[in-house]
User: Fold this.
Amino acid sequence: AYAAKKRKVKPPVITKVAPLDVAIGETLTIRGRNFRVGRSKNTVVFKRDRSRAIFVKAEFGTRKMLRVTVPPVVQKHFAVQAGNPVPTRFRLRVLT
Assistant:
């Protein structure tokens, strides 16, 4: 009887995000560990309280770094003051 050893998959961990002040259409670099290598293999989730999550595929990925372009759909979930969107903080999560 052959029993294949199942490799334990570790969850992705974010350690650093740069730049912290990023505009729509700009590239966000996420550093961490346990990412999947390759294009569009990882999904970055932008989440804000009382707002739905936005799922974006990372264009570039190594085991320790991801690059993702911030999509225009994120702007719909910005905080608004006097009818204008203002810089807003989002939580990030990586799905591999």
